[in-house]
Design goal:
- By secondary structure, the protein is mainly α.
- The chain is about 55% helix and about 10% strand.
- The chain has a two-stranded antiparallel sheet.
- The longest helix is centred in the C-terminal third of the chain and has 11 residues.
- It is globular.
- The mean pLDDT is about 90.
Length: about 70
């Protein structure tokens, strides 16, 4: 499963989720869905905007983990 690890990059950049929301133009609710791992998909345009705002690469926030449930 792919997990979006926003917490780490937000901490590294000393940025709040609210500030990221304002910079990217994505609602706080939608970013929260990504942050909590409840998102089933993410658009490339959203990923690009997040990476631009956080000055990072997609691999800095996307993490692959084995699904513990099989």
């Amino acid at each position: 499963m792919i997990r979006i690890d926003l917490d780490v990059m937000l901490a590294r950049r000393k940025m709040s989720l609210t500030e990221l929301s304002e910079r990217v133009g994505i609602t706080l609710a939608n970013l929260s869905v990504l942050k909590t791992g409840k998102a089933k998909a993410v658009r490339f345009s959203t990923l690009e905007a997040i990476c631009k705002a956080l000055n990072c690469q997609p691999g800095d926030i996307l993490v692959y983990e084995e699904d513990p449930h099989g």
